[in-house]
Amino acid sequence: MAIVRCLRRAAVFSLLLLGLQVPAAAGAVEFLQAEFQQGGYAIGKVDPGARVRFDGHDVRVGADGRFVIGFHRDDPAAMRLEITGPAGDRRVETLSIAQRDYDIQRIDGLPENKVSPPDSVLARIRADAALVAEARVRDSADTWFDSGWIWPVKGPISGVFGSQRILNGEPRQPHYGVDVAVPTGTPVVAPADGVVSLAVPDMYFSGGTLMIDHGRGLASAFLHMDSIAVTPGQRVARGDAIGTVGATGRATGPHLDWRINWFGKRLDAALFVPSMPEGTGN
């Protein structure tokens, strides 16, 4: 039985690699698009009216049966997906999540108060974090991400997703974004359709910070911006100008730190777009 299941999964993944949709058996899940790895995401489809739980949480299912899930940097190799059909039939799938090795990135020369902040700014840091957390819990029914994805700015990649950060010799949180090193003032565009959920010109760590809700829990964040050209609640289309690159907050030089999350799970933005084009220094 285990061999048959493995063969069936192999056939499904072969069809996915060919860009074909996989016919769903009764009560089964169909993955229309998937990156089954830490930092990846998947767009699935179930029978309309079915319910989905992933990693212990209910997931929004659209009228067409589509849903989105994401895999955090440190998610385990096996994750549980539960589907309850419209008639109450229940199916449990175990998703195999590829584990990744992450770089270690050492950054020296940062102002010491940006690495170990003084007590006088802790209230400000907590307030910043609360604003970001509020934006991350949005669960919009819209699927603005259907527009497809592009790079918000093009240039040399100076930092990658998942790197363990050593700041001024002190271990800190991993890096959850993709850094693109380009000059201050370089225009930044929306990578996909969405609605602006946060726009703050000066957060303590991230400086000029912008977030865009792309629907179903997917959201982009843009850090260290020099200027922000949009306001909360504003609808943006893929390719629209949203601001400019800067070096605000905790940064050693001008760059765009682009991040994507699915609610509280941090995803790898580089998995949403094609490889950086030739000739951009990558």
TrEMBL record:
Molecular-function GO term, any one: metalloendopeptidase activity
Domain M23ase beta-sheet core: 174-268
Protein origin, superkingdom: Bacteria
Signal peptide location: 1-24
Keywords for this protein: Signal
Designated name of the protein: M23 family metallopeptidase
